[in-house]
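hey all, quick one before standup. I had two proteins in the batch that finished overnight and I want to keep them in one place so we stop losing track of which output belongs to which input. First protein below, input sequence then structure tokens straight from the run.
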Amino acid sequence: MPNQKRIVLLTSKDNFVWTSMQEIIPMIERSWCELAQKENHLLTTINVEDSTPAQFMPSLISSDLIVISCFNTKIARFIKIIRESYKIDTPFFFYLHGLATIGLWPLERFGVLSLFTSNDLFIGTCEGDLESMKISFENARTQKIPFTISDSPMLHDHLSASAPFVYIGRISPQKNLDQLITAYSDLPLSIRENHPLYLYGSEDHLGYPNIGQKENTYLEKLKKLVETLNLEDQVTFKGFVHRLDIQRELGSNYIFVSPSTHSDENFGMAAFRALLSGATCVLSDWGGHKEYKNHYPNHIYYVTALLTDTGPIIPLKQFTETLLLAVRERQQGQPGFPEAFSMETIHLILKNEMARLPLQNESLKPKSLAQILISQQKEFESQEDIQRCFHSFSDPAFVSFFKAYAK
């Protein structure tokens, strides 16, 4: 068949250590499986934990496209053998996840960055990803493709005068939860009595690894903050609860809050689920959160992310006022799944990008920003701090990526 493509999908369960990846990677796999079935392409899926490149070499050599759903050391091994050992120049479609805001230094760390070319497509999920790649590389080909879900939680309960504020995600300083609790404490008591604050999630014990700031007691500090502010009757730490159980427990009668300035906040799956359920959201104007404003104009209230020498902040007065505004103005959600996030839209974008192949093929060219990050990461690794790539929050490189995500 003249338009039939032979596609190889490299994927991995090793990244399932992150709860969000347990949902996102299978979604990526499903999107390619459904596209291949619909367009009559030949798809070979390789789970790198259970396979060697040699087992699939005929498929790799004859492929028209190689899709890489995530990145880890085992994926890196496949990339090296494909491009370096066997000289296969089949284009890659590479899902970035959180790599755009650190200049792709892990690809350099594991010896594969130089194997990428201008013919490869780097897939992000927000404009911040694309802007981060733009300031890091001269000739990187990029495209924004959203994530989606198949179990759409469109519940749309009737509004109640008593609805909790809800955070769902990792308990991490990068999520600015101390600032959330402080802003919440400034709400009138009458509001807090009808709108308690629930925090769902486990502590990640990571701090700010890109900055080299470790934090093992953030949850404990948050609980002490709640005690200091006399909020024990209004703030509850729920711990990790499966998303479907949260969905059943809350319905849509809640106000979802995420003031995150996490460098990996490139989509916001919990926020997306909340919006689909009909809930009102208070979100940081940041990364993936920014993508929702055109699709849910009456159900999102944004707070500004600012950068200081001690880290990102959400202005306290604005935060409290926005929480109050969300309570007073929230509306009944309307059923419907935005077309921009549908599997059909994802397939259309993928088809258009595949139709552009092949393109001019030259080595990927890092700009000075990416080169600086790679150099700094090597320096920190020599000091046994392998995940660090920024000197501080005032590091010009950190400021550049912060601006890209807050733009």
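OK second protein, same deal, sequence then tokens:
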Amino acid sequence: MKLVKSSIIQIDFLIFCASIATLSLSIKLSSKLLFIALSLGIIKSIINRDFKWILAQKKLLVIYIFFFIYICIQGVFIDGLNSFFLSFDRSYAPYLVFLLAPVFYFDSNRIKVLPKIFIAGLFFTFLLILINSILHFEVYDRSIVQELFDIHHLYMSLYILFSINYLLVRLFRIEDKKEFVLILIMLVILVSFLGFFKSKAAMIILILLLAYHTMNRIKWNAIKKVIILSLLFILIVFFKNFLLDLYLRAFDFRLRIWSAATEMISQNIIFGYGSLNEYLQLNIAHFLHGNYEFLDFNYNAHNQYLSFLLKFGLIGLLLILMSFGIPFFKNIKLLKKEYIGFLIIVGLMCFIESIYNRHHGIVLCTLMLYYYNTINMNEIKE
């Protein structure tokens, strides 16, 4: 009876956990569950007059409140009040997750389970991919997975890299042999699926992530430094001679978009063009550059930094970057290493994709940013 009562009391958090678990499985289900969970959480907070979460996350919330007020004022000023309200749910409402998500982030002991739930959901998605492949007698590739689960391979790669970073830190600290073997097997599966999705950028990020965690474990001396520098030199030469052309050809599409984006940004770098106008400004630049084939697809900037600069200018970009600095300066040493790994992943992924333009990206980045901002805090006393 006590378990049932406890579950009812925490139903909002349970639904929140379900939304995280289904993030890689179904975008529609995950977004609906997240909306329900946040709504229940806010209502519960108001009814109980319990606002510990505001105190716990006040620094991040202040930044995000300034950001949201800024983009709303900017939207009204640039596009007019009518266009602002008509486009609010599509162009502005997604950023409300910045302000509402922390309703669950006040007890560090409770939110410790969130990455584990996310990873469990990711492995369940892997299992469904394998089951569907067997049932249909078909070897799946990333395009079939995208059609089946409505998630681009870059976002799956982002999820896998986050999971690898989380597990690597625990692998180095674990003492129990059974747990060590289990985590090692999970890492092998994650790396295998990362290869399955064939993201060139994700593979480079994986190498940098492994290098970062390895260097953190090495007790440096002169011989080890020479060995590491020699290996690094060999990798650079190998990449330059055998892989650079391949990557440049793959990036040609993005380089053309980035060129168009930087041209428009240079004309209004401080304030940007508003949340509604990223695609419009890019299409104008594509037309002027003669990239007529891009006009049919309405591409975004494919770079989160350029996307924020286009929409919200330098002011908006700096506010978002500031939010990532808060957990860094407050985290304990061991957690800081894990958080830096998280920054490497998100920072580099933002370089090749506008990950905040989709629910898959903005939700993971926001929820895990609040996770790292909370995990080493003591529970705030009532």
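Flagging for whoever picks this up: The two ends are 26 Å apart (CA to CA). The CA atoms of residues 269 and 311 lie 10 Å apart.
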